[in-house]
């Protein structure tokens, strides 16, 4: 079962978020709230790719640098990046300088453009993999059947660096599954947001 800890206001929250003020803000304002904006969805996929093997705190602290370096994660602009851009990014100390990950997100920007052409939007595609609502308390896990199906389908479509653990973290953050602990003060907020959400078609 997902564990809870009291925050600075004494209210219970998911234990992972009480480690730093940055985590707390991210947890209370973003994590688990449903997102249907294509740019935000693509940004999160990219950041989760960069986070692989690192702490999320490292990525969160560099998020504004990533946004500046990757054209605000506008995948249409990123799809035009070439080798000169790869060199520029490898020289940027404000981001994670990993050639494989950089080349993967540029590739994924091109695949995202293709997906919008075929599916209408990234949101319409990704929300097909939403986890069903359940009254069962969330349990700690690294993947889910939905994230495994999503990862497999993305790889089939030519996307890179998006294994089932990465796609599950993406789904948790973007509200496609409500993994706030059962007694977390934010759980009911995210649940209400999910209920009110008009799913993209």
UniProtKB/TrEMBL annotation:
Positions of Zn(2+) binding: 14, 27, 180, 184
A single MF term (Gene Ontology): DNA-3-methyladenine glycosylase activity
Q: Which GO terms describe its biological process?
A: base-excision repair
Q: Does the keyword Zinc apply?
A: yes
Entry keyword annotation includes Ligase: no
Q: Which UniProt keywords apply?
A: Metal-binding, Zinc
Q: Which SUPFAM superfamilies match?
A: DNA-glycosylase
Q: Which domain of life is it from?
A: Bacteria
- Quote the protein name from its UniProt record: 3-methyladenine DNA glycosylase
């Amino acid at each position: 079962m997902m564990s809870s800890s009291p925050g600075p206001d004494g209210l219970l929250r998911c234990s992972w978020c009480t480690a730093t003020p940055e985590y707390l803000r991210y947890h209370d304002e973003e994590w688990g709230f449903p997102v249907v904006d294509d740019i935000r969805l693509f940004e999160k996929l990219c950041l989760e790719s960069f986070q692989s093997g690192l702490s999320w705190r490292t990525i969160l602290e560099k998020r504004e640098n990533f946004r500046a370096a990757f054209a605000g994660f506008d995948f249409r602009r990123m799809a035009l990046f070439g080798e000169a851009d790869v060199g520029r990014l490898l020289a940027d100390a404000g981001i994670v300088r990993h050639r494989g990950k950089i080349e993967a997100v540029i590739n994924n920007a091109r695949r995202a453009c293709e997906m919008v052409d075929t599916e209408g939007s990234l949101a319409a595609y990704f929300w097909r993999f939403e986890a069903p609502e359940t009254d069962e308390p969330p349990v700690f896990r690294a993947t889910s059947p939905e994230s495994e199906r999503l990862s497999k389908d993305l790889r089939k479509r030519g996307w890179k660096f998006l294994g089932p653990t990465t796609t599950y973290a993406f789904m948790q953050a973007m509200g496609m599954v409500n993994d706030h602990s059962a007694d977390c003060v934010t759980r009911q907020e995210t649940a209400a947001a999910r209920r009110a959400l008009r799913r993209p078609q």
